[in-house]
Amino acid sequence: MQWFGKIFSVLVLGLSLSAQLLAKDVLVESQSAFKSALKKVVPGDAIVLKNGVWSDFEIGFFAEGTAQQPITLRAETPGKVIISGLSNLRLAGNYLVVEGLVFKNGYTPTEEVIAFKRNDTHLANHSRVTQVVIDNFNNPDRDSSDYWVALYGKHNRFDHSYLAGKRNLGVTMAVRLNSSDSQQNHHRIDHNYFGHRPILGSNGGETLRVGTSTYSLTDSHTVIENNYFDRCDGEVEIISIKSGKNVIRNNVFFEARGTLTLRHGNGNLVEGNVFFGNGAEHTGGIRVINSDQVVRNNYLEGLTGTRFGSGFAVMNGTINAPINRYGQVVNAQIENNTFINVDNIQLGAGSDAERNAPPVNSRMQKNLVFNDAAADVFKIFDDMSGIAFADNVLHNADSANLKQGFSRTKLTMKRNSAGLLMPQGDAYKNVGAPASLQPIKKSAVGPQWYEKKADRVEFGSGKVINVKAGVENSLFNAIAAAATGDELVLAPGRYKIAKLLEINKVLSIRAKKSGTVVILPGRTTLFEIQNGGSLKLSNLTIDGSESPDSAGNILIRTLKSGMYVSYRLIVENTKVENLNINHSHHFLNAGSRSLAEEIHIQNSEFNKITGDLLKLDKEIDDLGNYNAETLIMDKNRFTNIEGVLLSMYRGGTDESTFGPHFLFTNNHVEKVGQGSRNKRQASLYLHGVQFTRINNSQFMDTAGIVIEHTVGDPDTEIRANRFAKVPALKVTELHTKGASTVQYIDNREE
Ligand code: CA
To answer: Could you tell me the distance, in angstroms and rounded to a whole number, from the CA of residue 727 to the centre of ligand 1?
Structure first.
């Protein structure tokens, strides 16, 4: 009937007999049926995948359509065809369309999930992939690199699609220019939802990259417009432009860590983009490098980023720079941008012995800089006489270093119906972003049939489950039965734990009242955090005195390998004691390539421990990886711990990460780190930590603090502590020459 209807309607429309009449939809139910349908396909045809789950399906869609009659591969019902397992899609040929597929519950066995090519010589051109979903389609080996979408060929379009939850190494979407058949490509990337990309914890977590340094002097002519970048936090670059003549227009960046970086290539246009940082950490804006870049009519609000991650940065470069380094900024046009509560605008950023050429022949005009509170947001690192400043307006953003071309005034701002703050009064209507600017709405991007769900489950967002004491395996069984987000509330009593507690969901475990619940680990390991797991412990006493009498017991560990989902660990109002049945009894031992998004330990007591407290030091291959993004320890007592309190290691010379961050405040440390097995010979050992605060704490009769600075311009402050019977602070600068950059202020030594 379907066939008849199709042919009938074609006849009724009176279209010419020929290919049109023969054009057909072919519904296929198996991989072999797909292959035979593909052999017979003619322009105008559609191959329709039957609804259902297609496992281990490496789709090779190679065909030749025409401009009038493309060949389509689509889902029977958009969103109802799930491609899972070891699967991918390659398309090659001309005038092809792919529509409505969902990739989830699997990963690609090759280096791309969707590739616009069959091989190096057979590419796709004039083709379109629309309304596809790639959702958490991750190689379980986080180090195994792949792209989710790789554009090759020319005149291709990727639109109205959903890409979220990439957790393994590799750019989410890449435009490749590595042969002449892929250069001057005129691709269009539009109306896509780039959903949350969690912090990768190393280089290679960009969301979109156009080109590579090798081909960066080649023009790409890719248009990136009307996309929504929602918390794309992978690394310091959200978008990395590494080619010329691209247009990045009318995109929204929502609470995304990092920046849109014009890293390589010349003559790019950045226009009408909107950045809403909402004060989230490391939210940045636009970074300008190289020649002939135009940045106009953009709106940036609430961005906290600094240095290369600033709300706005114009970098210093090098004249005749090597292709992989920093080209001098020449002929940049920066106009009609609005900066509201942007913490940092940096000019001449990165100025050093190598990057010694400031911007030249450039203009910065009619920009509006507004701050709620008075602050000088400008940082100027070199001679800026190569930028002609004109008609810029500042409100509460004074800079002693900027005179000509800046007027200071009091502005009244009003939020318009598009959600943007605009200055009131005709005098300012030509300053800053235009009033006509309309940021693309989240609801207007991606396929309409796929929900843009939050991918993070909060602690305590599920139900409350009461757990009884004195019942065999009651906690083990409650954990196994709980759903993610649930909270287990333990009745007063003693809980002897006879089995490993596997945490593969977001779980809170607490006693109603502190001091009423004692947990007694009976195995070598108490908790194992697995993929998808996060753990919050509150009001508990954990007593190791009934642990097995063997060396190397562990209270909490992650999977030893294969941790590709980052986790959170919170410990509060909890007492951990007597981890001393044998030697080297550790509190937390992170596995290789595990990444804690956050570890937060507060108002807790740790006493009589023979091992280390926090072992976050497995990434010793110096590839720029590390085991915790943010570690906060506040208002705790650490006493009689033989090992190191913290061993944190971030090696390598790559500068693509913001972390690790370490905040250690208001703690009491006594008799810590003096055991003969403490290899670090330290109480706190920090290698390559990017941001450190050790403040308002007491260290008594304890091993010293050892800090090894590596790359990045690490920000380390040690302030207002009391040290009694503690060896002197040891700092090593492994990367920069000259004096230590540690701020050591107001400490008392006895
Ligand atoms: Ca990078």
So the answer is: 39
For residue 646, how many C-alpha atoms fall within 13 Å in the half-sphere facing its CB? 27
Count the Cβ atoms, other than its own, within 10 Å of residue 145: 13
Tally of helices (H runs) and strands (E runs) in the chain: 4, 73
* DSSP structural state of residue 257: B
Alpha-carbon gap, residue 316 to 330, rounded angstroms: 10
Q: What is the pLDDT of residues 673-724, one digit of tens each?
A: 999 999 999 999 999 999 999 999 999 999 999 999 988 778 999 999 999 9
Q: For residues 73 and 33, is the Cβ–Cβ distance under 8 A?
A: no
Task: With CA atoms as reference, report the closest residue to 94 among 208, 183, 181.
Answer: 181
Band (17; pLDDT cuts 50, 70, 90): very low
- Tell me, in angstroms, the distance from the centre of ligand 1 to residue 171's CA: 9
Question: Percentage of the chain surpassing pLDDT 70?
Answer: 97
Residue 10 parent element (H or E): helix 2-12
Q: Please give the single-letter amino acid code of residue 710.
A: T
- C-alpha distances (whole Å) from 379 to each of 315, 357, 386, 400 are 11, 17, 16, 10
Q: What is the rounded CA–CA span in Å between residue 571 and residue 601? A: 5
Task: Identify which of 329, 322, 312 has the alpha carbon closest to the alpha carbon of residue 277.
Answer: 312
CB 429 within 8 A of CB 435: yes
Query: What spacing in Å lies between the alpha carbon of 263 and ligand 1's midpoint?
Result: 10
Q: What is the pTM of this model?
A: 0.91
**Å from CA of 206 to ligand 1 middle:** 6
Distance, in Å, from the CA atom of 175 to the CA atom of 207, rounded to the nearest integer, reads 11
Q: How do beta strands 81-86 and 101-107 pair?
A: parallel
Rounded CA gap, 596 and 218, in Å?
Answer: 39
Q: Which whole-number Å values give the CA distances from 624 to 141, 185, 654, in the listed order?
A: 17, 33, 6
Q: Where are the beta strands (DSSP E) in 16-78?
A: 25-28, 46-49, 52-55, 58-64, 71-75
Between β-strands 378-380 and 71-75, what pairing exists: parallel, antiparallel or unpaired?
A: unpaired
Among 643, 619, 648, 617, residue whose Cα is nearest residue 631: 648
What 8-state DSSP symbol labels residue 426?
A: G
- pLDDT value at 9 more than 90: no
Ligand 1 center–CA 322 separation, angstroms:
18
